[in-house]
């Protein structure tokens, strides 16, 4: 572990990740950077129930190779995301997770840690409300070509000096914290949420993204996630999943459609995806739910 007070890395000392990752680049050792920590990893083909600590740093992850379904538990319902090249993730500061995955192709990532002191200083200089890291995480998950390009290029800049690292940290932090600050919010939050919920109900069977819903609400992804959660108490993804589960319950009780047919009509990619989500929300599998009501 690195001997520094700038990065919040002490929680990792309690986590044994040696069997799951291999360093191919570390800016601390390979470039001597102290204001920005950049690490490139290759990952084991699979992991089961791997605990990852929450830290106060701004922690960015870019998938640079491979194909895996990442299952993440963060104290609530599990989330599933596909990790393919270009997939970005911002770890919500202070939130520990438990991760499981199985890769169908060799998985590799670039991971960036920006010290919390840099984040707090930048937020103070920008002014305005405190950063909403959960909304920022959701927005970044919908894609940000600027962040992707910068993060992807950092390991190749290992010959650059500390000024380069400090500038990259300042740029990434300013860019991320500025997302959505200048967007207008036409029509008010509640009208935007009503439009989004209407779209969800009309298109339950379709693969909807945050970008799709935000466009229908006439908001940036960042503002959409924040306004939606303020109005409903849930993220758009959780709300949409709940609507799909409610529709699946109705179809299981009132029709003879197969589980596969119901999964397709409710927007789940497979019967297994419906079964996992149904178990998480209802507490039983779809087949058991139907049997109990027959």
From TrEMBL:
Highest taxon of the lineage: Bacteria
GO molecular function term, any single one: DNA-binding transcription factor activity
Keyword Transcription part of the UniProt annotation: yes
Gene3D superfamilies reported in the protein's UniProt record: Homeodomain-like
Protein keywords: DNA-binding, Transcription, Transcription regulation
Every HTH araC/xylS-type domain range: 194-292
InterPro entries: AraC_XylS_family_regulators, Homeodomain-like_sf, HTH_AraC
Alphabetized SUPFAM superfamilies for the sequence: Homeodomain-like
Name assigned to this protein: AraC family transcriptional regulator
Gene source species: [Actinomadura] parvosata subsp. kistnae
């Amino acid at each position: 572990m690195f001997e520094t007070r700038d990065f919040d890395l002490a929680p990792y000392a309690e986590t044994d990740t040696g069997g799951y990752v291999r360093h191919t680049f570390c800016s601390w050792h390979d470039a001597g950077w102290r204001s920005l920590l950049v690490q490139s990893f290759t990952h084991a083909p699979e992991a089961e129930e791997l605990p990852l600590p929450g830290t106060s740093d701004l922690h960015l992850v870019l998938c640079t190779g491979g194909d895996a379904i990442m299952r993440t538990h963060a104290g609530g319902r599990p989330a599933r995301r596909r990790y393919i090249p270009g997939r970005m993730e911002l770890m919500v500061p202070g939130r520990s997770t438990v991760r499981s995955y199985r890769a169908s192709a060799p998985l590799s990532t670039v991971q960036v840690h920006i010290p919390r002191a840099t984040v707090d200083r930048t937020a103070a200089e920008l002014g305005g409300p405190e950063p909403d890291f959960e909304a920022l995480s959701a927005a970044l998950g919908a894609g940000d070509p600027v962040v992707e390009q910068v993060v992807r290029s950092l390991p190749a800049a290992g010959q650059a000096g500390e000024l380069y690292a400090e500038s990259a940290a300042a740029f990434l932090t300013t860019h991320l914290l500025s997302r959505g600050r200048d967007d207008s919010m036409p029509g008010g939050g509640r009208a935007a949420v009503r439009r989004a919920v209407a779209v969800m109900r009309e298109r339950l069977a379709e693969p909807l993204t945050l970008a799709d819903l935000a466009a229908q609400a006439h908001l940036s992804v960042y503002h959409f996630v924040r306004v939606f959660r303020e109005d409903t108490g849930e993220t758009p993804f959780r709300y949409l999943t709940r609507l799909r589960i409610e529709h699946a319950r109705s179809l299981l009780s009132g029709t003879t459609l197969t589980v596969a047919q119901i999964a397709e009509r409710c927007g789940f990619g497979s019967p297994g995806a419906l079964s996992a989500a149904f178990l998480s929300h209802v507490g039983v599998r779809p087949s058991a739910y139907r049997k109990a009501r027959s």
